[in-house]
Design brief:
The chain is mainly beta. The chain has two domains: 66 residues, Roll (SH3 type barrels), CATH 2.30.30.100; 51 residues. Helix content is 13%, strand content 49%. It has a ten-stranded antiparallel sheet. Strand 1 and strand 2 form a beta hairpin. The longest helix has 13 residues. It is globular and about 40 Å long.
């Protein structure tokens, strides 16, 4: 199974108005930012992803404390860095810096490093510092 293709189809379903409340099972993800409800969950090699109220959300395993669910999907061999490298839409990235969670926009992925626009500057952040990735629909105006 191609997890990037599956994530893209989940994103497209979100863009076309699929309501997450109509989906069969909701998962609770306890993470560094609190508890988040996800539906249509997929599991990568080092992350968990699903549809949330802010779009497609990807949590690195290092930022997840536990998941409340009846079942878990099979783990695919795709890494978070592979998903980030494949993004064509603006991607909001939350990352940990000196114990605080900061936000920025992913500009590009370079191996273990992410180039992020944050706080009016460009920074380089290791993929391991990421706590959440949000992929949201962008409409042309």
């Amino acid at each position: 199974m191609d997890i990037i293709g599956e994530l893209e189809s989940e994103f497209e379903a979100l863009r076309t108005g699929l309501q997450t409340s109509n989906l069969p099972e909701s998962f609770q993800v306890n993470n560094l930012g609190g508890t988040t409800s996800l539906s249509r969950i997929v599991a990568g090699k080092d992350f968990i992803a699903g549809l949330g109220d802010r779009g497609l959300l990807l949590f690195p395993n290092s930022a997840v404390f536990l998941i409340t669910a009846n079942t878990m999907p099979d783990v695919e061999q795709t890494a978070l860095s592979d998903v980030l490298a494949a993004q064509r839409n603006p991607v909001r990235v939350h990352f940990s810096q000196q114990g605080q969670v900061k936000k920025g926009w992913l500009l590009s992925e370079h191996g273990p490093w992410l180039r992020i626009a944050a706080e009016l500057t460009v920074i380089w952040c290791p993929v391991g510092a990421v706590t959440l990735v949000e992929v949201s629909a962008v409409e042309n105006l």
